[in-house]
Specification:
This protein is an alpha+beta fold. The radius of gyration is 35 Å and the shape is elongated. A two-stranded antiparallel sheet has the order 1-2. A two-stranded antiparallel sheet has the order 3-4.
Amino acid sequence: MSGYRRLPIIALFALTFLALLAAAPGGVFAKAGPVGMPENARVKSYGSGWECELGYQEVKRACVAVKVPANAYPTNASYGRGWECDRGFQEADETCAAIKVPVNGYLAESSYGTGWECERGHRVVEETCVVINVPANGYLGDASYGTGWECERGYRAVGKACVAVKVPANGYFVEASYGLGWKCDRG
């Protein structure tokens, strides 16, 4: 048999093999479950081995149920508690306690601290949100410290007021919290 006559036979065998391979991909490429996989576990979606199902954590090569308190949900973390509090709740002694948001406050996206922040124009004083009193010729600032307000250009803070800076002839206004608030022109 010449080399050209064998080519169709080899091609036929190759096509038959590829057709069988395509017809049964699950059987050929399926992952076998790990030996000794515990109850409430599943084969990892990547790599090898197994991992515990949601609501279970690995303890000594077994999947143990996580005790999820009220107002919480299970996480897939293999470390820590295995649960997180719902929005509006914070962990307190292995439970989830409701966050008490004061008037003029809102829930914050933080899992630490008070769990709330004050609305713009208000600041935290103890466990409440108090209005920031902005004087005439002032405006709300962005800083979470200090007075909570700043003076408009041409004014400076003196106590709880914004006082006009008096610039003499041959002088110009300087934006500074110290000094006179103006400097002399050159020359």
